[in-house]
Write a structure and sequence with these properties.
Helix content: 40-55%
Mean pLDDT: 87
Structural class: alpha+beta
Number of strands: 7
Radius of gyration: 20 Å
Distance between the termini: 21 Å
Largest sheet: 3 strands, mixed
Oligomer: single chain
Number of helices: 9
Low-confidence stretches: 183-200
Strand order of the largest sheet: 1-2-5
């Protein structure tokens, strides 16, 4: 799961779904991946290894400080150009907004394997079989239940739930990167963990 709209409907029917979308009655919020995870969130040059915030880009007049060519401008720069309110502004009566990283990315960070590996998807699929869908795991499954899988992964899921995982923004075709402080410690413990928890 990466993006979702939260709806509270008395009965899940096509008509009720369309009505909720059109009238916003029953609409309770959204779940989205951190925008900084995108490939073109900030400005920069991949080949030069240069990444700049919109403010830094304006200071540099849109020119790469390394190669002196125009920077590839990211989404946030354009958002700031169009914005008619300060960053972080929340309209009165706004619905809930959850900013989360996908479960597969969290598992990958804990196990030290790429998202596409059998190890990551093996854990992912077993968790779904145990706890239901991905959003239930990310939002609702409690600590005690999650600890059945891996206590280190539990901590990362709870940090994700609380919005405590920071992301270094993506730029010029490079994806953003989640900064998970515990990852190095987790990697060291992984050997022992695998011996004790062969099921996961």
């Amino acid at each position: 799961g990466r993006e979702a709209t939260l709806l509270n409907l008395k009965k899940l029917t096509y008509d009720n779904l369309i009505k909720a979308i059109r009238t916003r009655k029953g609409y309770e919020g959204t779940i989205e991946v951190d925008p900084a995870y995108g490939k073109y969130h900030w400005d920069g040059h991949r080949n030069c290894g240069v990444i700049l915030s919109p403010r830094e880009t304006r200071k540099a007049k849109g020119i790469c400080p390394k190669c002196a060519k125009p920077l590839t401008i990211g989404v946030e720069y354009r958002v700031e150009e169009l914005a008619d309110r300060p960053k972080g502004f929340v309209p009165q009566g706004a619905k809930s907004f959850y900013k989360m990283l996908p479960l597969s990315e969290l598992i990958s960070s804990v196990y030290g394997n790429a998202v596409s590996t059998k190890t990551v998807w093996g854990v992912y699929n077993k968790m779904l079989k145990t706890f239901g869908n991905e959003f239930n795991i990310l939002l609702d499954t409690n600590r005690e239940q999650l600890n059945q899988v891996n206590s280190n992964l539990t901590e990362i899921i709870l940090q994700n739930r609380e919005g405590k995982i920071k992301v270094n923004p993506g730029y010029d075709g490079v994806y953003g990167k989640a900064i998970i402080k515990e990852s190095s410690k987790i990697t060291k413990k992984l050997g022992d963990f695998k011996k004790k928890n062969s099921g996961y």
